[in-house]
Amino acid sequence: MGYSKKRFLAMLLLSSISLSTVSFADSISEMENKKHLNQKSADELKNSINSLEQEKNSLSGDVAVIDEEIKKLEAQISELMKQISALEIAIKETEEEIKKLEDNIDKNQKEFEERLGAMYKNSQVGYLDIVFSSSGIDDLLSKASTMKFITEYDKEIINNLKNDKLVIDAKKSELDGQKLSLEISKQTLDNKNAELYASKASKLVLIEEAANKQSISQAELEKLESEISTLEKSISAEKAAQAEDARKAREQAAQAKAQAQAKANTSNRQVASAVSTKSSVGAGEISTNVGNGTLGWPVPSSRNITSNYGYRTLFGVPEFHMGVDIAAPLGTAIASADSGTVIYSAYTGSYGNLMKVQHDSGIVTYYAHLSSYVASVGERVSKGQTIARMGSTGNSTGSHLHFEVRVNGAHTNPLNYIQ
Ligand SMILES: [Zn+2]
Predict the structure, then answer these.
(1) Which fold has domain 2-232?
(2) Rounded to the nearest whole angstrom, what is the distance from the C-alpha of residue 42 to the centroid of ligand 1?
(3) Residue-wise pLDDT tens digits, 297-342
(4) Following DSSP, what letter does each residue of 343-393 receive, concatenated?
(5) Topology (CATH) of 305-416
(6) How far away, in angstroms, is 338 Cα from ligand 1 center?
(7) What is the pTM of this model?
(8) Which residues surround ligand 1, an ion (CB under 5 A)?
(9) Structural domain boundaries of the chain?
């Protein structure tokens, strides 16, 4: 009965352990799965962050190249600006020269006009008009020749004026051309510069976009990594809880077993002590009422032999009785037949609870059908000392002691030793 009860308890505990194990395993594997998925996403994000980094680096490289080009262009522009400035100075000087020439023309014209006198002053066609409308020096001279008043000196003035005017025109035109071409190159460079700045700006926008994407990915990655770390903590906490539960279950099983054992022991002791109160000899007490044999009488309170050593018929079956049976009430004190050492105490088949004592002479005595043990294996006992209590365990029909004397292992008639 005790066995099946214990077994039932153990099965109950086992089933509760396996139930909790299943639920733990489910939640752990769920978390492991989630952790695995998070890890996968995190790896993908890491790859995307790396490729964004590469993109950013290559864009930065492009921008650096463009920056170099812009620097060169800026140097070129600066050089051109210097040239333009030099040309502007040259233009100003030329303009001053032109002004001087014009002043000279003016002066010559006035001098000439004064010298011509009032006679020509009022003529319908101005002298200078003739001079400047001439298509060439020959034409002029042919016209001038018609004007008898023109002197050699006048002719020289006219030529000088005409040359000056041509030089001025040529210089003016040359300067205009230079100004225009400079303006064009300046404009071209400005355009190019603007274009380069625009492309640099667009590259910067791309870099910024890549950086933004990267920081978003980084934030996502950090979130995932934090989730992974939380999951790892939860998993190890679950595993620890699982281990703790298993430990508690083992402890409970051990306690249940110990309690069952203690209960069994207590009931044995209760029977023993209940009976022992009736007995005059207490546990471990030494009785002197052990007779006059070589060995002491093992039941100090009873001399009632119910079965002798030798052949007998028990339940109609002949058998050899290897000891003597001495009857007394349950729990009666059993005394050691001589001083010696307890070498055995265990339930042994038809003997029931059996105790063996090895005596100093080499003889071993057997005490069977006991209700409980008082002495323990290894314990040194004296002659007449209570070592056990009478019972009816094993193959027994009532409370009695089955006592054997063994010499060199062979059973012998105990009555040759006890009286
Ligand atoms: Zn017997």
Answers:
(1) Helix Hairpins (1.10.287)
(2) 83
(3) 999 999 999 999 998 877 677 788 999 999 999 999 999 999 999 9
(4) EEEEE-GGG-EEEEEEETTS-EEEEEEESEESS-TT-EE-TTBEEEE-B--
(5) Glucose Permease (Domain IIA) (2.70.70)
(6) 20
(7) 0.36
(8) 325, 402
(9) 2-232, 305-416
